Amino acid sequence: MKKLVASVLALSVFTSAAMAGGPVVVVEEPTPVVEEQSGSSGGILPLLLVGIALCVALCGGDDDEPAPAPVVDTANQ
Fold first, then answer.
1. What is the mean pLDDT of residues 23-44?
2. What is the CA radius of gyration of the chain?
3. Spatial distance between the Cα atoms of 50 and 56, rounded to a whole number of angstroms
4. What local confidence, expressed as pLDDT, does residue 42 receive?
């Protein structure tokens, strides 16, 4: 009788562990997609560069020095 009780007890311990729970389903949460927004100054930069180029071309000072006056050689006349 003790063997029967021991075997039923052992069988119940192993059976409960084998039947416990169900399959483990791991569901990963989708990673959120974060898109970077373009900068607000993206449209003004080409206009700024064009303005600077026009100012350099049209407003540039005259850096040439005046030509020296021609030297007249009066000794050979």
1. 78
2. 48
3. 10
4. 63
What tokens were used for 22?
A: 């169900």
Residue 51 sits at φ, ψ, to 5 deg, of -65, -40
Structure tokens at 61: 């000072």
* Cα separation, 65 vs 8, whole angstroms: 116
| Dihedral angle sign, alpha carbons of residues 15, 20, 22, 27 | negative
**In the structure encoding, which two tokens stand for residue 19, read together?**
């039947």
Phi-psi category of 66—alpha, beta or left, where left has phi over 0 and alpha has psi -120 to 50?
Answer: beta
pTM: 0.30
Place of tokens 């030297």: 71
